[in-house]
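ok so i was messing around last nite and threw this chain in just to see what happens. nothing serious, just curious
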Amino acid sequence: MAPLIGIRREDINRWERRTPLIPNHIRELRERYGVDTLVQSSPLRVFSDEDYRLQGARVEEDISSAPVIFALKEIPPSLVAKDKVYAFFSHTAKGQPHNMPMLKRMMELGSTIIDYEMVADARGRRLLAFGNYAGQAGMIDTLWALGRRLLEEGLKTPFADLEPAHRYGSLVDAKEAVARVGWHIEHRGFPDGLAPLVVGFLGYGRTSGGAQEIFDLLPNEEVAPGDIGRLRDKVYSAHRLYKAVFKEEHMVTPRSAGQAFDLEDYYRNPGDYRPIVEDALPDLTVLVNGIFWTPHFPRFVTKAFLAGLFGPGETPTLRVIGDISCDINGAIEATVRPTDPEDPVFVYDPATDQAVPGFAGRGPVIMAVYNLPAELPLEASAYFSAALKEFVPAIARADFRAPFPEVELPDPIRRAIIVYRGEFTPAYPNLGPLVL
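result:
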């Protein structure tokens, strides 16, 4: 009998239109590996039911006959089925409280969880991710937010002509719109008082790289983070932007006087380093955050600093923080809540510690859309599916009734199994107390 997999429809919200496997790859899996696919019908998915049928998939409401179910986002506990293998972004590996009920239910029903976020090579590099598309959508939304904020101040700029990423028909359309903005900046410049317009990027991985790919459609000049404060003392242009990319050595410094920065030591002992991003923040117009963060690392923008920056006096240069990583109260402490594509921003008011709707106020605009790749569903799905399909045949053929040490799976997939037949795998023993 041919191995059978299922693709679950996404129901976390109306914005989630992505799919883990696109129709062309479903056909490839059938023709090359004999893997059949059941697709749950969806009115929202970027690929229609008919797209899947034309490539040989069976589209049905009930996909319970498939032993392995592929999805993207969290699954409501009430919809979890007994003895199934689920591959998705479970958002449980860090002990996220809001997903503990789902995790508990899956364990009670003897489920197996393969978490895409944990699929990595031997060096820890993630193999299944949307980071690049999160960065691109996040940068588009951030530039749009900048245009709206400046309009509130009475400053008309080309950024005001942009739309959020999800309003474009494709990524190509969005890039063309940003390029047109770049043409206007290069030929007409910014209003008086706005230059030098400096955008700082935290990080240099996939997420930051995607954001910079969009930013680089604009005329710009790169400066070292340490030189940002001296820009105003030099000859700068109102016909370009300035970009500063913050690596770890620009974000923290050793607490011990005379100690040199050491990257490996920083990741081993982050508490021995203090953050210094705030030193540059008063000279930035926009800050874009694209770093991976956990509570072990310092916060790079604190509420206390923003309270001082936006206190009485002149209006600060900083207008927008594009928090693409969107860790609530995390690296950007002012990210006090997530947003969605329909209402992607708020103003953080340091005086009240509140998220205020809109673009106006005594505080920075925060862009914190938690599922940014969903704003580019076509391109993001195709990219993710191309990576995932390489693992699907092995997952589809694996005997998940065997003891965990004996199940035949590629190492990246084995390392990503959080729960196996209702029990935590050896790599995730610390989650146990959180589901009691």
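not much to say yet. The chain has twelve helices and 18 strands.
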